Amino acid sequence: MISGIVYSQSTVTFTLPVVTLMDIEPAGNISLNFTAPTEAGNPLGNPAPNTSKWINYTSAIAAGGLPRKITAAILNSGIPGVNIRLQAAAASGAGGGTLGTPSAQVTLTTTPVTIISGIGGAYTGNGANNGHRLTISLVPGTYANLLAQTNTTVTIVYTITE
C-alpha cells in the first residue's frame, strides 16, 4: 500500500469597486402651502411638515478613504421671509453596514450644510421606507420680508461626498 497526501490550489481574483450612489425616493415634487389667518392679528398658518421623501444610498469606500456625508442646499435664493427646514431621521428599513448619523434640524440656504455624516460601507435599501426619512417644513422667518407668492418653486440639492 502506498499512502500520500495530494494538495491542490486555486486562485480567486475579485474586484470590489468604490461605490457612491444616492437618490431621493419616491421621485416627484412636494407642495407646502401656508394658510391665511381667518382673524386679523393672527399669524399665517404653517403648512404641515412633509415626510414623504427618503434618502437612499450605497457606499463602498476605498482603503484608507474617509467616511462620506450628505449635504443639502437650496439651488435658488429661496422665498423672502420664509425658512425652509430639513431634518433627516436615523436610518431604518432593509439596509446594513455603517449607516450615517443624521444632524440636528437645519435651515437651508444656498450654502450646503451636512444633514448625514459618518457613512461607511453601507446600503440603505431602495425606495420609500428605506434609508433616512426626510422632514421638510416651512416657517416664517422674518415677517417684514414676506411677499405674497403663488406656485414658487424651490429646488433642494442633495450631494454625497467624502
Protein described:
The chain has 162 residues and is an all-beta fold. The chain is built from no helices and eleven strands. Strands 1, 2, 4, 5, 7, 9 and 10 form a seven-stranded antiparallel sheet that branches. Strands 6-8-3-11 form a four-stranded antiparallel sheet, with no helix packed on it. The chain is elongated, with a radius of gyration of 23 Å. The mean pLDDT is 93.
> How would you sum up the major sheet?
7 strands, antiparallel
Distance between the termini: 64 Å
Report low-confidence residues grouped into runs of 5 or more. Answer: none
What's the rounded overall pLDDT mean?
93
Beta strand count: 11
Indicate the percent of residues in helices.
Answer: under 10%
Structural category: mainly beta
Which sequence of SSEs, written as H and E, runs from N to C? EEEEEEEEEEE
- The number of helices is 0
Radius of gyration: 23 Å
Task: Give the amount of beta strand, in percent.
Answer: 35-45%
Write down the overall geometry: elongated
Helix and strand topology:
Layout: E1 19-25, E2 50-60, E3 68-74, E4 82-88, E5 96-97, E6 101-102, E7 106-107, E8 113-119, E9 122-123, E10 132-140, E11 156-161
Antiparallel strand pairs: 1-2, 2-9, 2-10, 3-8, 3-11, 4-7, 4-10, 5-9, 6-8
Short account of what is shown:
With 162 residues, this protein is mostly beta strands.
Using brief descriptors, characterize the structure shown.
single chain, mainly beta, 11 strands
